[in-house]
Amino acid sequence: MKKLLFLYNAHSGREKIKNKLVSIIDIFAKAGYEITIHPTQAKDDATNTIISDGERYDTIVISGGDGTLDEAVKGMITLKKDIPLGYIPAGSTNDFAKSIGISSDMTKAAETVIYGEEFPCDVGVFNDSYFVYIAAFGLLTEVSYETKQEYKNVFGHMAYVLEGIKSVGMGNFKPIEMTITVGDRVIKDSFIYGMVINSTSVGGFKSPLFKDVQLNDGKFEGIFVRYPEDPTDLNAVLASVIAGEPDAEYMYYFKAKEFNITSEEPVSWTRDGENGGSHTEVNIKNLKQAVKIFKPVKKKK
Question: How high is the pLDDT of residue 242?
Answer without folding.
Answer: 63
